[in-house]
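Data deposition worksheet. Section B asks for the primary sequence of the deposited chain exactly as it was used as input, without tags or linkers unless they were present during the calculation. Section C holds the resulting structure in token form. Section D is free text for depositor observations; keep each observation to a single sentence. Incomplete worksheets are returned to the depositor.
Section A, Depositor: J.P.
Section B:
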Amino acid sequence: MSEGLMELDNRDKQLLKLLTENAREPVVSLGKKLGVSRTTVQNRIDALQRRGVIKAFTIEFDQQYQRRLLKAQMLINLRPGVSRRIIKELQQRPQISSIMSVSGSYDLIVELTVEASSELDQLVDDIRETQGIERTTTCIVLSKYDAGGV
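Section C:
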């Protein structure tokens, strides 16, 4: 766990929950919900950013748009000694939303998001041709459920 996450007090956790629900909520409104001043909220947000707890304020796509997207997970086996290079290459692809280094039968799990099955087919073929990738398995995500955790 990162050092920044270990030091969160309850007010920071409440603030993060509110920002997760709506990152554009005005600081004044956040202060009212938390029972503190606008300045206190802004100072806490600034501190969370400095500590690296908050990396960015992002957008949430419309659910209708999200439902149109095709998501998949690609499990990848690599040749020894190529992981850094492969990860850097994969990071350049806009269709890849996440790259995880894992233990077990595979070396990487890559989350892919595309608009059509033909785009997924081409992307999978392109990734498979990357020098240093030995084997891949691709699983199309049928449903996704919130776990309710952190």
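Section D:
The two ends are 12 Å apart (CA to CA).
The helical segments are 3-6, 10-21, 27-34, 38-50, 63-68, 83-91, 117-128.
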